Amino acid sequence: MPARSHYLNNAATTWPKPECVAKAMAAFLEGRGANLARGSASRRDLGTLDMVTTCRMKIAALFGGPDADPRNVTFTANVTEALNIVLKGFLKPGMRAATSSMEHNAVMRPLRRLEGEGVSLAVMPCTREGTLEPDTLARELKKGLDLVVLSHASNVCGTVQDLDRLAPLCAAAGVFLVLDTAQTGGVLPIDATGWNLAACCFTGHKGLLGPQGTGGILWRDDFASVCRPLIEGGTGSFSHEEVQPSVLPDKFEAGTPNLPGLAGLLASLDWLGETGIDTIRKREDELGRKLLFGLRDIPGITLYGIGTMENRLPVFALNFDGVDNGRAALELADRWGIETRPGLHCAPVAHRTLGSFPQGALRISPGFFNTEEEIELCLEAVSTLSRENPHS
Amino acid sequence: MECLATFDTTHMALLFEKACRGAGLSARIIPVPRELSASCGLACSYPCESEEAVIRICHEKRVETSGFHHI
Ligand SMILES: Cc1ncc(COP(=O)(O)O)c(C=O)c1O
Question: Which of A25, A168, B36, B53 has its CA 20 to 30 A from that of A115?
Fold first, then answer.
C-alpha cells in the first residue's frame, strides 16, 4: 500500500474539510450543546437558536441572494431527503412531472415511486454529453406540466445545465422548477431568486464543505404553502396544538435537527464566504483543466461528457479499453493511493445517456484541496494502467 | 408593567431581539408566560416606552410578531 493517499473522489463527498468545521462541531458538542427551541431561553438555548438562525441566513443569501427570506430555509439530513420532501409533498396522482435523462437516483427513485402511484412522468432526453437542450424542455412544457425537477450538474461527468436558458422557460409557462444543487452548491453561482426556483435543494457535505448529515431546501413561498410535510412532530412551537404548524421554517422541520452538523455547516459557510466561491471555482477549474487535457492525450481510454472545460465541473468519467472500471479503481488505490469511484454512481439513467450503461465508468473528481502534483500522479497512473492493458 | 412580543416561530423571536438591540433598545428573550398564547414558546421583552419604535423596526426588518402584550 502506498504511504500517502490522494483523495480524488470529491463528487461523492468533499475531503478534507476546512479545519474550522470539525472544531465547530466539537465545540458545539463539548461546550454548548443545547437543543433548538426546547429549553428555557437560557444563554445556552439562545446560543443554539442563534447558530441555526445564522446558518439559515447564510444559506438563504448563498442560494437566493440578499432578498431571500431565511425562514424559507428547511434543514434536512441531505439533498436526498430534501428532494423527497419536495417531490412527495407536491406531486399527486393525475399530475405531470418532467425530469432529465441525467438524474441521480435521489431524483429518479422518488419520481418512479410517484409514477407507480399515478403521477405521469416524462424523462427528457439529454445530448450524449449530458446537456438538456432548451428546445427539449420547451416541447415538454407545451404538453402541460405541473413540475420540472433537474440536477444542476451531473455527478457522473460534471456537465452543467444552462439554467439561465432553462429556468425562464418554466417561469414563462408558470411551472414549478425544482433544482438539485448537490454538485454545484458552493462551487457555481446559484440564483434561486432570479431563476424563480420553487425549491432549491442542497446538500452540505459536497461543495459546501460541511459535514455529512446536513442539507436542505430554500423554498419559494407559494410552493412551500402547497407542499405537504413528509414528517410531522415536535417543533418546539405551537405546542398546544396537535397538528403540524403551517408556518416556515417549522412546517417541514419536526424533530431535533442535526445540531452538531449545522454547527459544522455554519463554520464551512463562513470559510466559503472568506475564501470566495469564485476563488474555489477558479482553482478547481485549473486542476480540472490539467487533468482533462492530460486524460485526452492518453491512448486506450474513453472519456464521457463534454470534452472541454466549458459548462462543466471537474468531474470526469472514463473507461479503459478492456479493463473493468472497478478493477482500475482498485489498482489506482492499491498502487498509487489514488481514491476514485467506479460503477454507476447512483445514476443509471445518466450512464445510459452517456453510453456507459451497464458497465458504468471510473469517476475522478478533484477538489479545492488537491495539488498539481496529485493531478500529475493521477495522469501517470492512468497512463500506466492503460499501457499495461493488453487490449489497448 | 412588562411589554412582551410573541411570535409564531423561534426564528422570528431571535430576529426581533437582534433588531431591537441593533437599534439600541434593550430586549431579552424569555419563555412565554403561561397567560399568553404558547405560540413558539419564546417571547421577547422590549421597553414599553419605545413600542412605536419597536413596531416600526419590525416593519422595516420584516420581523413578524403574533402580538404585543402589556402584562
Ligand atoms: C446530482 C446529485 N444528486 C443527489 C445526490 C445525493 O446526495 P446526498 O447523498 O447528499 O443526499 C448526489 C450525490 O451523490 C448528486 O451528485
Answer: A168
